[in-house]
Amino acid sequence: MKTRKFRASSVPRIPSTTLFILVAAFVLSLAQDDHFFDKASVGVLPDQSVDRALDTGQVSGLVPLRTLAINPGTRRPVNVLLLVPYNNSIPWAYRKIMPALEIALQRIDADQVLPNHYLRMRYFDSKCDDSHSMNYAINAYMDKKGDAFFGPCCDYALAPVSRQATFWQVPLLTVGAEAPDFLTFKFQKFRTLTRAGPKNLQDVSDFLIMMIKSFHFTKMSIVSLVFVTTL
């Protein structure tokens, strides 16, 4: 398979303000459970249609389940591929991610952060699966509709997409990448990856051990939410 060389001039340099807004929105959205947005200005496919199509299996795997854009006018698009699972039991599911991204799009448009371009997001259900995620990423890249990737967030789905994005020189933003390897091999395998979530799970455990030793705790209890899903 022939690979397409990346041309820096083909994709506009996104200002740091835009990246900050999108990163903040992506992270803060994890606390959101309700879906809300201005339907008059954002989105082209209603939630009901997405739910119905997914529940009945009437959507082709290569058809975006949703496309978001705000008042494009004559501006050039920056195509963002959003790869998150639809399964709502997962912390970064579609319904929890989309509200904040829609707000971010409205904010970017209102502040004219990208005066000559607009962000166009195309959503696909990653299913937290490596094969589905890679399939969408490859097709988006070959169709020249993958200027940037948001997600995948599940590590097994993220790893192959992020490795390939390095060769494509496509920026990838995720709130996942919790495995230590994403940090250890950042400059060898995951050069275009930006992690907006926790550093990694190993550092969380190291922090707890240091805290226990520092305060000389001898007894402690851990309260956790059991994460169970069938994908």
Automatic annotation (TrEMBL):
Its main location: membrane. InterPro entries: ANF_lig-bd_rcpt, ANP_Clearance_Receptor, Peripla_BP_I. Pfam families: ANF_receptor (PF01094). One of its GO terms (cellular component) is membrane. GO terms for molecular function: peptide hormone binding; signaling receptor activity. GO terms for biological process: signal transduction. It is found in: Membrane. It comes from the Eukaryota. SUPFAM superfamilies: Periplasmic binding protein-like I. Keywords: Membrane, Transmembrane, Transmembrane helix. Residues 98-223 form the Receptor ligand binding region domain. This is Receptor ligand binding region domain-containing protein. It comes from Elysia chlorotica. The lineage of its organism: Eukaryota, Metazoa, Spiralia, Lophotrochozoa, Mollusca.
